Each structure stands twice: as structure tokens, then as C-alpha cells.
Amino acid sequence: MSIPPEPGQIVQVRNLRFVVADVNRGSLPTGSLAEGLNHAQHLVSLTSIEDDALGEELRVVWELEPGARIFDDANLKDYQLDPLVRAIQMQRVNLLIADDVGFGKTVEAGLVQL
What we know:
This protein has helices spanning 82-89, 104-113, and strands at residues 10-13, 16-26, 41-48, 57-61, 69-70. With 114 residues, the protein is of the alpha+beta class. The radius of gyration is 16 Å and the shape is elongated.
């Protein structure tokens, strides 16, 4: 059984990276596609952090989504939360995120987008 992600985690679904916005636990009714599975299902709301799809939303049943995986916590660094903290304190978010080349700015922008 696949462990569901938690809000704020970075996941890969359908070969794209997303940040988890929300996780709702539920059960599939008898007679459903997953009959025989006696465990809970999780509806996971995702927001894309891919450059060409930034901010696009997707909802999936985590246990039924093939190839879905959670990136380990090593992909989210403390400094990547700084723009999010600043954005929360602003009445109108207006940030320029710039630093060295890498994955960090995409994660920062995705977190702020939520």
C-alpha cells in the first residue's frame, strides 16, 4: 500500500512535479473499480511547479495513480521557504525570485502560488 503525501510535499505524478495542496481521506464504495481493497483512498489536490505548467491544478486518487511518488524531504531546503514567508506577510504578493541555477526557484514559486 502506498503512503499518501502530506500538504507541502513535492511529488511526481504523470512524470511531472507538483506540490501537494490538500489531501482528503475517503473510502471507495462497494462495487467500485477498487473493490477488494479494504484500505482508505486519498484524494490528493496538486499544484504544478513545472515551468511550462506552473500553477495548473490536478486531483488524483493517490492509491490508484500509477507511478506516483513522493520526493524525499531533501528536495525542500529551508532557504526555499523564505519567499513563502515573505509572500504570506504581504497584502499583495510582488516578489522577484532570483539566485543560482537549479531547481530551487521553481519550488519557491510553486509554494508561493499556493
